[in-house]
Amino acid sequence: MKFEALYYQDRLKIVNPEGDVAITTLWSKVESAYQILEEAGVDLASATSRIGPIANLYGNGLPQMLRNLLWNPQISRIVILGKNLSASREWLLNFFEHGLEEVEFLGAKAFRIRNTTRTIDGCVQPQSFLHIPEFTVLGDVGDPATKAGLKTFFDSLPAAVTADLARVEPPPIPEPTVTRFPTEPRSHTIVRDTPMEAWSEIIFRLFRFGHRNMVAKKSGPEGRVELQNIKAIVENPLEEPDEILQQYGFSLEKFQGYQRRILDPEKPSDLGYTYGNRLRGYFRRSDGTLVDSLEIAAQRLKEKPESRHAYIALWDNTRDLPEGTDTPCFVSAFFRKFDGKLTLTATFRSHNAMEAWPENVYGLIAIQRFVAERAGMEPGPLTVFSHSISIDVSSLEKARKIATSKESDEVYDPATGKHGPRMDPNGAFTTTFDAATWELVVEHSYGGMKLNEYRGKSAEEIERQLGRDVALSEISHALYLGREIARKEFEMKAARAKEGPRAKSE
Hints:
Blueprint (H helix, E strand, L loop, with lengths): L12 E2 L6 E4 L5 H10 L11 E5 L6 H10 L5 E4 L7 H11 L1 E6 L2 E6 L5 E2 L13 E4 L6 H12 L33 E4 L2 H15 L1 E5 L6 E13 L7 H6 L4 H11 L12 H6 L12 H11 L7 E3 L6 H4 L6 E9 L2 E8 L2 E2 L3 H20 L3 E14 L3 H9 L6 E3 L4 E3 L7 E7 L4 E8 L2 E8 L2 H10 L6 H25 L1 H5 L1
Parallel strand pairs: 2-3, 2-4, 4-8, 9-11, 14-16, 15-16
Antiparallel strand pairs: 1-3, 5-6, 6-7, 10-11, 11-16, 12-13, 13-14, 17-18, 19-20, 20-21
């Protein structure tokens, strides 16, 4: 029976198509392993060698390898050698020795190789094989013991067994079925100019990355798509035109009504709490007088503009923690003069992203303006922390429409109807090369002023320097700059080659 590769045929080195031994070199080069086999005196003749395929196994190709083995039952022995950089050796061995266990993977059903962290489709299992291959594990290609082990293995190899061989048609590799993409669910920071721009990006992040979790409700557990500790920064916290809000099903009139209510210290008797009451009419001093936190914060900032004591807590440990129901989601507000403007950082313990977040932000705009006017300051950026922000599963279709409407990360200018790159708050970069030293030169500037200069003989050198300095903050900017540096490197190499021997000698 001749070896036939169903997958990655172009990546396999076939020594003898009728060989019954396969060699996997893990992360080491196939050519290096072949050289060691030659030095060990192993038969590599295409008509007589016992070796069939030699191939890498980085890890991602494991499903393909298993299907190739099913289709080629003559491969009765597998030699594993080379650098094991991704634990692919353990994945292969544990698959056959311990099998698979069912797990959840990115919100969908999947299988994991037992005693490993490797997730794999469960269409091929150890019991799918009529005969399990025998494994021999050796060391790195450069280890003298590996060469000796190869010679010993092939010198003592028994005759090949050719009876009872039948190809097994392997199942196709299924398309991935995941409900979310991988991310660190507590690290997202969103910076946008307007509330609706920030909100639509939040919905995009939740739809793409959110975990399907259960949350406790009065009516029982409820399924939600959730992320933690999202930080959204609205650089220009002002009311938007009603026509923009209506595109998303919101109303400026409704938001303005909410802005009035959030500043009202009176609490209706049928409500457990209101934000206006918690901010301005709930807490009392020891003498019984009410604490209007917003007025006090404004007065403190007016008297001491650089104060960091304008911090307001809405959460009442004596009531909210023991009762645990009908408690505020908006739990703190911190006012701070920063770069000459009054910033507000608001914290929410939980957030309904689809409906509550935009309304809450409009309420925060009113709160920030209230304090800024009384403190004699101009409002600055607004930051909203959401410890738990989520979308109800029933609202996922609406979230999908918002998320899929995002075509790029570029900025849209409604005045011109054009898209442009999102400006990186870390600055701008220009890329050239210095023909005197044959170095790439990347200049870092901000506001038209040069800040720094990066030099290197290759794009990789520049990449390391930029990464070290955390010089960029926008993914789209980093991708663009990477292309520019690669283009300049190509131009520099072409120019140096044109210069001839003089350039090469320098």
